[in-house]
Specification:
By secondary structure, the chain is mainly alpha-helical. Helix 2 runs parallel beside helix 4 and helix 4 packs parallel to helix 6. The chain is flat.
Length: 125
């Protein structure tokens, strides 16, 4: 009984710690542009170090500020591909299809899309 109580309290402390850590990171987040940094460059560094969730956060934030920035969208597609987020990847790929179709990057997007979602007709054309 004491062991279960100790484990439960340890779990609660751990959850509180990680919850507070997440809130702290969100509260002190400053947009890359406000720090004089290119969001795509920062996201590329995050991706290089395996910090996909941080890259996605930076890129989504950049997309809200610059909805027509194709470099942000292509890098976000790469992050979604790395993360295996099929739904987000397919939605964003559909959004950039008309802008990128016929370019080499579109072929890469289709190839990655086929690997993730082979039944999706968007990636098989």
């Amino acid at each position: 009984m004491m062991l279960l109580t100790a484990m439960a309290s340890s779990l609660m402390v751990m959850l509180a710690y990680y919850g507070a850590k997440k809130l702290w990171r969100a509260a002190r987040y400053t947009k890359p542009r406000h720090r004089g940094i290119d969001p795509v460059g920062e996201a590329e560094v995050f991706l290089a170090y395996g910090r996909t969730k941080d890259a996605v956060r930076v890129l989504r934030d950049a997309m809200r500020d610059e909805p027509d920035n194709l470099a942000v969208k292509v890098t976000l597609l790469r992050a979604y591909s790395t993360d295996g987020n099929v739904r987000a990847y397919s939605t964003l790929a559909r959004d950039v299809q008309t802008s990128l179709q016929g370019q080499a990057v579109w072929n890469t997007i289709q190839r990655n899309g086929r690997d993730m979602d082979p039944a999706n007709p968007l990636f098989n054309t």
